[in-house]
Write a structure and sequence with these properties.
about 130 residues, alpha+beta, about 25% helix
């Protein structure tokens, strides 16, 4: 089961926070069952003057890092919703946005107070040069 429609709405907020300089980080958490993949941490990076996303896959025994354009990262991350992750959190300087699946696979997206007071330094430096 793909959660494309609901994740599109959530990911649009990720793209907005990158564009307006409020993005702090994005984390896939709360795995369903006992899995080798523990978390996915997403942060902005600049490669050849282009803003991209670094996806760090944290396994029990190792880490794997991959780089994607902001658009391509969506397609790479989508299959991990419900397989194995039931929670994705967007941390911005204005709010935390939580994408959560319950046991019946119903999606809720909720705003919470911000955890971080500062946006990603890499993002801010990139936006200052544009």
């Amino acid at each position: 089961m793909l959660f494309t429609e609901t994740f599109v709405a959530f990911y649009s907020k990720v793209k907005e926070s990158l564009a307006d300089g409020t993005f702090a980080k994005l984390t896939f958490a709360k795995t369903i069952g006992n899995t080798q993949l523990m978390n996915i941490y997403i942060r902005p990076v600049v490669e050849e003057e282009v803003l991209q996303l670094e996806l760090k896959f944290k396994f029990q025994q190792e880490e794997i890092v991959e780089f994607y354009s902001i658009e391509a990262a969506f397609d790479r991350l989508l299959p991990f919703i419900n397989n194995p992750f039931s929670s994705v959190i967007l941390f911005t300087t204005e709010f935390d946005l939580v994408y959560k699946l319950n046991k019946k696979k119903a999606v809720t997206i909720t705003n919470q107070d911000p955890t971080f007071g500062n946006a990603s330094p890499v993002l801010l430096e990139y936006l200052d040069t544009k």
